[in-house]
Amino acid sequence: MKLMGMCSMRGWKGVQCRKLFVFATILFAASIVYFYINFSMKTTTEVVNDNMLEEGYYAYERAAQESGGVRVIRFNKTSNDVIVFVHIQKTAGTTFEKFLVRYQQNLPCKCQAHKKRCNCGRNASNETWLFSRYSTGWVCGLHADFTELVVNSCVQRVLDKQAGHKKKRNYFYTTFLRNPTDRFISEFRHVQRGATWISSKHVCNGRPASVNDLPTCFDPRIGWEGVSLEEFISCPYNLAFNRQTRMLSNLSLVGCYEHLRRPSYEQDKIMMESAKENLRNMAFFGIKERMDDSQYFFEATFDMKFSRKMSVWGKSKSNDTVLTASQLAYIRNVNKLDWELYEYALQLFNERLSQLHRKKRRLR
User: Fold this and answer.
1) Which residues cross the membrane (predicted)?
2) CATH 3.30.70 fits 50-363, yes or no
């Protein structure tokens, strides 16, 4: 090469020239790798978004754009619209789901005593308008996340199978979030009492996570009942860490559960941006610390009314956990992604709540 020929001179000038050549070569190679990865990620994201568009995931987003930029949710109670709830552990999700099937007045579900699941079928077709724990059950896996429900198209497949044929539907995704430190402590207490969610599938890229993909923190034959806080927070594969961010992101963008075995800033950033985008595109999300506002948000968004107040039922039993200042600081640090997402969610929640209040005042 011409540059190397120029660098054949002896002495310090030759050394400096050769160093410059090596640096230029490395920079050129790094540029190629960067553009390749960036293009691949962009292509993957576009494919995922196209799939979600086909499933009607962004149906309400299009409706909002058609309304002059004002965010409007048009949920058709008599058509093919379905509310899907992404149930993140220890976020008041159980309370919300119970209210949907038992205390919601506009599309009442048929519930029987001593049975958890209710029939939420529409009168004409009996096809469900609600995809959740207490209507369809855990048909996509125990506490199925966004990747399992949307990216892997489980909701669409399950409802098509129940209907006996493929059908175009609009899906309105919903979820609840919670103060990350309180949520983490609540999960610790729940696991301490014997819960493990060991039967969760963690499907990503079309297959369940293996033990190699996702090592467990305990012996599945014994469980983790009675675990100490020190042991709970010392396991690097503990899914309680940043659970809200992970469950709302598209994990296929970060190699599924690769981020747990080989954490990196780049993967965290991709996962965070994915979770924020998916949260923005949800028809509704509630905040456990704002139950009254969350109830108003849902009722105004979907034109549905609850016969009771969720705030009475959504109180935590884990507020009596005594922790030191250093333990609290450590828990906050290991859940820093969830804290970033939660603070973003609060801001977005307040913006949308204000928009609903302004809309209500205009209609008076």
Assistant:
1) 20-37
2) no
